[in-house]
């Protein structure tokens, strides 16, 4: 603990964002380049080195947060990088994309703003790369065992890296033409520039992990054939089966799923397309769904030059502070948060009729209406109470040339045939059944990440990847020294 009084003398200071008018004209990350490093040592000083650090429990990876806070406050970046990578394969991803449940569990957050744990994490990760503290770590010797990992999202990549470093020969199969899963084609560039992902993939290649892109298991290669070829298989395909909105007019043109829309804008950034065929330019856009994916659509539509953008959230607008009775510390509270995309929408007034920034809260979609050509032109909504019951006399209509459905995901997509070809048992909610050791009902086949857990956070995805790697290593060798931060039935802290 470098400064015993740091939490009393130093106020919280977050990584500043670039001015809205500047950042909406490009696709670069929203934060001011170089502005984090000058403030991060003092922010790390705010950590109280608690006797019982609840930030550990709030983070499924079990990140050693007080330890690396202390090291950063002392400018010991090498040791800080070692302690951070001891529990997290990809801190540059979580430092940019995770909503930081660790900060909700910070003891300082009981009566003060929490330590900027997420900012400290990303500072360490970036410094590790800049100073050469993240070299490839190939195994000393090979085990002679082979593993196929299906899916190259954070779960699949974490599992593959852990198993490769343990000495197994690992091949990652990805159905898209590029690696990264939703980090590649779902997360917009302004949230995480893709060079962070590419750099980590090069590290994994240097360690010995093999990658097979444009290969959908179940369609391009038979699932049973793949199982016969490898000693073990890890299914980490994610939960890509999106939820639908079964209301009148859903069949109209111009109503798209968020994950049909976002990949196209990312492909423009990759140079595959000159412009997106679903571009929001000049259109009245309505986003149905109040989560992070909806916010990603919001920021994307703003940058594409939409005429207006409104986001509908079926929940009531949360308060600015924690409800101690309903969501006591150290649980992750539902409070009003202003993401970078919402800040942009608020300042640019993309939805003048919204309750706050671009959002309409407690709003439920009733139906869509279109023009004579069968294209959507209006969305009809109604306000709802806490039990989602319509409130009489609250109906209204929004102009809508493009509607984006961001309603979440139920489980793995079964169209490729992977699930059925292997004969995997499934849960009623659409996820893959597994036992306490991450094993499915098919011998040698394991399931991890959103495909088995259901839609979750990136930090849980990486924790799942690390844990399933330990399970597979134990299956192949009889024991394992790989860390297993969570079990398949663990869940976030709740009331």
Automatic annotation (TrEMBL):
Gene3D superfamilies: Alpha-helical ferredoxin, FAD/NAD(P)-binding domain
Classification via InterPro entries: 4Fe4S_Fe-S-bd (IPR017896), DPD_II (IPR028261), FAD/NAD-bd_sf (IPR036188), FAD/NAD-binding_dom (IPR023753), Glut_synth_ssu1 (IPR006005), Glutamate_Synthase (IPR051394), Helical_ferredxn (IPR009051)
One Pfam entry name: Pyr_redox_2
Annotated metabolic or biological route of this protein: Amino-acid biosynthesis
Record keywords, A-Z: Amino-acid biosynthesis, Glutamate biosynthesis, Oxidoreductase
Highest taxon of source: Bacteria
Presence of keyword Transmembrane: no
Database matches in PROSITE patterns: 4FE4S_FER_2
Keyword flag Oxidoreductase: yes
Domain named 4Fe-4S ferredoxin-type: residues: 36-69
Protein name per the record: Glutamate synthase subunit beta
Source species taxonomy: Bacteria, Bacillati, Actinomycetota, Actinomycetes, Kitasatosporales
């Amino acid at each position: 603990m470098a400064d015993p009084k740091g939490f009393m003398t130093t106020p919280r200071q977050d990584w500043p964002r670039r001015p809205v008018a500047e950042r909406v004209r490009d696709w670069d990350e929203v934060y001011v380049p170089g502005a984090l490093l000058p403030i991060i040592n003092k922010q790390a000083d705010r950590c109280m080195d608690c006797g019982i650090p609840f930030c550990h429990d709030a983070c499924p990876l079990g990140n050693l947060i007080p330890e690396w806070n202390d090291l950063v406050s002392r400018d010991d970046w090498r040791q800080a990088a070692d302690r951070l990578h001891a529990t997290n394969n990809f801190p540059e991803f979580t430092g940019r994309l995770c909503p930081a449940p660790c900060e909700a569990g910070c003891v300082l957050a009981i009566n003060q703003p929490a330590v900027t744990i997420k900012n400290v994490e990303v500072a360490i990760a970036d410094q590790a790369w800049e100073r050469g503290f993240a070299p490839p770590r190939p195994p000393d010797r090979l085990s002679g065992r082979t593993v196929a990992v299906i899916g190259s999202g954070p779960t699949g990549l974490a599992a593959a890296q852990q198993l490769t470093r343990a000495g197994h020969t690992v091949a990652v199969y990805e159905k898209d033409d590029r690696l990264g899963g939703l980090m590649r084609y779902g997360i917009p560039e302004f949230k995480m520039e893709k060079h962070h992902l590419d750099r980590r993939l090069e590290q994994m290649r240097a360690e010995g992990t093999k990658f097979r892109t444009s290969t959908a298991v179940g369609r391009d290669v038979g699932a049973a054939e793949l199982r016969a070829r490898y000693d073990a298989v890890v299914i980490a395909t994610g939960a890509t089966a999106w939820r639908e909105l079964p209301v009148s007019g859903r069949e109209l043109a111009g109503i798209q799923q968020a994950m049909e829309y976002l990949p196209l804008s990312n492909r423009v950034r990759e140079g595959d397309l000159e412009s997106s065929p679903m571009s929001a330019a000049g259109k009245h856009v309505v986003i149905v769904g109040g989560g992070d994916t909806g916010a990603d659509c919001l920021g994307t539509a703003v940058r594409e030059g939409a005429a207006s953008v409104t986001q509908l959230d079926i929940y009531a607008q949360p308060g600015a502070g924690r409800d101690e009775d309903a969501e006591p510390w150290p649980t992750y509270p539902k409070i009003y948060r202003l993401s970078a995309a919402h800040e942009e929408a608020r300042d640019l007034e993309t939805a003048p009729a919204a309750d706050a920034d671009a959002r309409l809260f407690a709003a439920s979609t009733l139906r869509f209406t279109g023009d004579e050509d069968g294209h959507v032109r209006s969305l009809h909504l109604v306000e709802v109470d806490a039990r989602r019951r319509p409130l009489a006399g609250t109906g209204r209509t929004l102009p809508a040339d493009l509607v984006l459905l961001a309603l979440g995901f139920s489980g793995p997509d079964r169209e490729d045939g992977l699930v059925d070809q292997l004969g995997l048992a499934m849960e009623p909610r659409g996820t893959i059944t597994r036992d306490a050791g991450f094993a499915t009902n098919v011998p040698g086949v394991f399931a991890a990440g959103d495909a088995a857990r259901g839609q979750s956070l990136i930090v849980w995805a990486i924790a799942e990847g690390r844990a399933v790697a330990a399970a597979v290593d134990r299956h192949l060798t009889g024991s394992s020294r790989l860390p297993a931060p969570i079990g398949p039935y663990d869940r976030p802290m709740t009331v």
